[in-house]
Design a protein that fits this description.
It is built from 3 helices and 3 strands; from the N terminus they run αβββαα. By secondary structure, it is α+β, with helices and mostly antiparallel strands. The chain has one domain. It has a 3-stranded antiparallel β-sheet, covered by helices on one side. The longest helix has 22 residues. The chain is elongated and about 45 Å long.
Length: 93
């Protein structure tokens, strides 16, 4: 598989809110299949962070020749837009 195909795999995203140690509500998102989690004060902040993490993690593993979880096939119709969106998110972080 090519890197663009790995980036187009639809991983399951879990999102929830919980009170943090500071007593404030935080938003948490997780790609359990990739083993990464992010948090933020707002859900969109947390989602931007995890998207950047997803792209970095997959890209790093691909470049090192490591295994990448493939729980379902890539969304071929979305490969270009997912790649562009993921790279923009990675640039912002």
């Amino acid at each position: 598989m090519q890197l663009e195909e790995y980036l187009a795999i639809p991983y399951l995203l879990t999102a929830y809110s919980a009170v943090g140690d500071d007593g404030r509500w935080h938003r948490y998102v997780e790609y359990e299949e990739l083993g990464c989690m992010a948090e933020g004060d707002h859900i969109l902040e947390a989602m931007d962070r995890i998207e950047a993490m997803r792209v970095r993690l997959i890209t790093d593993r691909y470049e090192r020749g490591e295994e990448i979880a493939v729980p379902r096939p890539p969304l071929r119709s979305a490969q270009r837009s997912l790649e562009a969106r993921g790279r923009r998110a990675a640039e912002r972080s």
